[in-house]
Specification:
By secondary structure, this protein is of the alpha/beta class. It is built from eight helices and 13 strands.
Length: about 290
């Protein structure tokens, strides 16, 4: 079979993004463990920024072929974090691109970056910076509760002693930077924006609709090799016709939750008069 150059590119992107899901699952798991052990919060956040650099796909206009540097800018905060980030990225490459970390203080400087980490001290200036550079190929990462509502793309939040990340999928869609859509199943749910189900129509109600069609989630081969077992839990928003509109992650290891979410999206429930929220739990283990 012969593929055109366009077909080869599409196939590569699809396979690449599928691989990113697995890599990101390991990242989320490893960083969670890191945050619960001896690493400082600065070290964990610096590690996230490094991995976001590895898991992003920039347009060629922003990151051309060749050995041009991939720049991570830090706006605000203290010099100590920048020192930590520089230590993390020292000698690292993303493909042919050496990683560089530097302090930035103006929109012109931010435009020369590929990732900009806006510290909490920059809250008042974040929205203006994001809006002015919305389509310039800059990935904006923040650490403030209002950051995603201001148009930011990824937010680092501290929760129960660990650093997690949350994502604004609309902002990522508007940008020219590509992440796998399944990053959403690994990110912290509910980033504080209006409920995605909210509208002029009635809110969904809790229910236990009878399942008309279900298929058990696949036990991921990589999880089996890791001898990874446990319970994954998701919440399905079910339309009146019984099809699943969306799935929200409630808990579980990212590899297992992702497998459950993909299966539940294909389930069919008994039709009802209104949208309902159905909680699904599944125990994973060797067959």
């Amino acid at each position: 079979m012969h593929l055109s150059r366009e077909g080869e590119s599409l196939l590569w992107r699809r396979s690449s993004r599928a691989a990113l899901v697995i890599v990101l699952a390991f990242l989320a798991f490893q960083l969670l463990a890191l945050g619960q052990q001896s690493a400082t919060e600065d070290q964990v956040k610096a590690a996230y920024l490094f991995n976001f650099a590895k898991l992003s796909e920039w347009p060629r206009t922003a990151l051309p072929d060749g050995q041009s540097p991939l720049v991570i800018g830090v706006s605000g905060g203290d010099a100590e974090f920048l020192d930590v980030l520089r230590a993390v990225v020292a000698g690292k490459f993303i493909g042919p691109h050496p990683l560089v970390a530097k302090s930035v203080s103006s929109e012109a400087e931010m435009k020369q970056c590929h990732i900009v980490f806006l510290r909490a001290s920059e809250k008042k200036h974040a929205q203006a910076a994001i809006e002015s550079l919305a389509r310039s190929g800059v990935l904006f990462v923040g650490e403030d509760n209002s950051f995603l509502r201001q148009g930011g793309m990824i937010n680092l939040v501290r929760e129960h002693g660990s650093v997690r990340f949350e994502v604004n999928p609309d902002a990522l869609d508007r940008s020219q930077i590509h992440f796998s859509s399944k990053i959403l199943s690994l990110a912290k749910a509910d980033y504080g924006s209006p409920d995605p189900t909210a509208s002029n129509s009635p809110s969904p109600v809790a229910g236990t609709r009878r399942l008309e069609h279900r298929s058990a989630p696949d036990y991921p081969a990589i999880a089996e090799r890791m001898k990874l077992t446990g319970t994954a839990q998701v919440q399905a928003l079910v339309r009146p016709d019984g099809t699943v509109k969306e799935v929200k992650v409630l808990g579980g290891h990212p590899l297992l939750v992702d497998a459950l979410a993909r299966a539940v999206k294909q389930w069919k429930y008994q039709p009802g008069p209104a949208e309902t929220l159905e909680v699904v739990k599944f125990n994973f283990g060797p067959q």
